């Protein structure tokens, strides 16, 4: 399909997904910094995020990729309180193949409440609405909490890419989950 834009605001029952604004940089950095030990295990960018200025640069980059249609990243906010909790985004977009991938992280104190499953579900609905046919979630085989998200949302495990990633200095496998629009 032709390149399209995702909406800047997506609402679900408990959440709002909002396109990043520069004002979020300080809070985003404080979240990454306070949860660094946990987040760095599966998110390689964490070790390169060392100041609020790095988050400002990240948000600028996210705006540029939004305009280009290559990456759409959102902050996850609780609707009732307006609390920012983490990020969810659409990346590895292959417009000519109607395919995209979702990525996510949430601060540990908001984990275990179904917010990520809800956020991904909302993004999935928006993606299907734009015409995406195949939606993927990839994660390390060492990350059962992440793998539980696509499982909970009814994705199929399409395969396991053996030792395709260096994770904390060792090779690890990547699990590829996918859902086809209107099917599993
Ligand atoms: C991976 C990660 C985003 C998963 O977050 P999460 O909060 O476990 O995911 P969900 O939103 O799907 O929440 C599911 C949990 O909420 C519970 N839950 C509570 N209310 C719920 C609801 N209304 N709907 C669904 N689940 C609900 C589920 O029972 C489940 O609990 P359990 O883990 O005790 O079984 C999080 O662990 C994280 O940020 N990890 C570090 C970064 C990372 O690894 N990112 C992914 C890289 S591929």
Bound molecules: coenzyme A
The dominant shape is: globular
Biggest pleated-sheet summary: 8 strands, mixed
CATH architect. name of the domain at 9-133? 3-Layer(aba) Sandwich
Order of helices and strands: EEHHHEEEHEHEE
Give me the number of helical elements.
Answer: 5
Q: What is the averaged pLDDT score?
A: 97
CATH superfamily of the domain at 9-133: Gcn5-related N-acetyltransferase (GNAT)
Helix proportion range: 25-40%
Count the strands?
Answer: 8
- Class per helix and strand makeup: alpha+beta
Strand share of the residues? Answer: 25-35%
In the CATH hierarchy, what is the class of the domain at 9-133?
A: Alpha Beta
CATH fold-level topology of the domain at 9-133: Aminopeptidase
Question: How is this fold's topology laid out?
Answer:
Elements: E1 9-11, E2 15-19, H1 25-34, H2 36-39, H3 52-68, E3 72-78, E4 84-94, E5 99-106, H4 115-130, E6 134-140, H5 144-152, E7 156-167, E8 170-180
Parallel strand pairs: 5-6
Antiparallel strand pairs: 1-2, 2-3, 3-4, 4-5, 6-8, 7-8
Helix pairs in contact: 1-3
The site of coenzyme A (COA) has 19 residues, from strand 5, helix 4 and helix 5.
Description:
By secondary structure, the protein is α+β, with helices and mostly antiparallel strands. It has a domain at 9-133: 3-Layer(aba) Sandwich (Aminopeptidase), CATH 3.40.630. It has five helices and eight strands, in the order E-E-H-H-H-E-E-E-H-E-H-E-E. It has helices spanning 25-34, 36-39, 52-68, 115-130, 144-152; strands spanning 9-11, 15-19, 72-78, 84-94, 99-106, 134-140, 156-167, 170-180. The protein has an eight-stranded mixed beta sheet, sandwiched between helices. Strand 1 and strand 2 form a beta hairpin. Helix 1 packs across helix 3. It is globular, with a radius of gyration of 16 Å. The mean pLDDT is 97. Bound molecules: coenzyme A. Coenzyme A (COA) binds at residues 39, 42-43, 104-106, 111-117, 139, 143, 145-146, 149, 152.
């Amino acid at each position: 399909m032709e390149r399209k834009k995702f909406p800047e605001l997506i609402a679900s029952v408990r959440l709002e997904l909002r396109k990043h604004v520069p004002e979020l940089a300080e809070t985003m950095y404080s979240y990454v910094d306070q949860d660094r030990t946990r987040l760095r295990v599966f998110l390689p960018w964490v070790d390169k995020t060392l100041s609020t200025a790095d988050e400002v640069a990240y948000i600028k980059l996210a705006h540029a990729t939004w305009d280009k249609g290559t990456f759409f990243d959102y902050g996850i906010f609780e609707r009732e309180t307006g609390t920012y909790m983490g990020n969810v985004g659409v990346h590895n977009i292959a417009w000519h193949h109607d395919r995209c991938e979702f990525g996510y992280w949430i601060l540990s104190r908001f984990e275990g409440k179904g917010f990520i499953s809800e956020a991904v579900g909302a993004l999935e609905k928006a993606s299907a609405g734009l015409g995406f046919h195949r939606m993927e979630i990839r994660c390390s085989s060492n990350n059962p909490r992440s793998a539980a998200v696509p499982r909970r949302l009814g994705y199929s495990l399409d395969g396991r890419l053996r030792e395709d990633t260096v994770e904390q200095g060792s090779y690890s496998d990547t699990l590829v989950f996918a859902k086809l629009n209107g099917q599993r």
